[in-house]
Amino acid sequence: MKVKFLVVWGGLFLGTLSFAQVAVSSLDSMAITAVLFQQQKDWNNADIDSFMEGYLKSEALVFSGSVGPIYGWENTLARYKKNYGDPIRMGKLQFDVLNMLSLSDAIVQMQGKFYLTREIGDSSGYFTLLWLKKEDQWKILSDHTSSSK
């Protein structure tokens, strides 16, 4: 599975080298940010299951954080539920989008910042998301998030 993922990921990366990175169309930008801010709303309603609807429901999904990569939608869901299983640990989330680049008609890279305000201690950091357009819906294929505090 990991080898297959790396081959696919490497192919996507090498394929993008031959194309200029261009600005994301306004329609795609609006669609992607709508998904992201729906995730923010779902998180702030302590609804991890709805929050996860923004991710590609596939074994190809990868979430990379402080403990390394987690592969697959179900494993990512389990990670979120383990680490943020109640409203106190979830707190209130805010996203700021820093930039978006179109790597192809169906792949967009986004960099942003997150702020998590909680009674048990605030956290913030940066994220890089790869969005995949599949069946006219944008979903997160890869999420690399690092906390700065």
Characterization of the model:
With 149 residues, the chain is an alpha+beta fold. The chain has one domain (21-147): Nuclear Transport Factor 2, Chain: A. Helix content is 36%, strand content 36%. It contains 5 helices and 6 strands. It has helices at residues 2-17, 26-44, 48-51, 73-83, 87-90; strands at residues 62-65, 68-71, 92-102, 107-117, 123-134, 137-147. The chain has a 6-stranded mixed sheet with strand order 2-1-6-5-4-3, with helices on one face. A hairpin with a 2-residue loop joins strand 1 (62-65) and strand 2 (68-71). The N and C termini lie far apart (33 Å). The mean pLDDT is 90.
**Would you identify the CATH architecture?**
Roll
Oligomer: single chain
Rg, Cα atoms, Å? 15 Å
Query: Which series of helices and strands comes N to C?
Result: HHHEEHHEEEE
Low-confidence stretches: none
Describe the global form.
globular
How large is the share of residues in beta strands?
Answer: 35-45%
Count of individual domains: 1
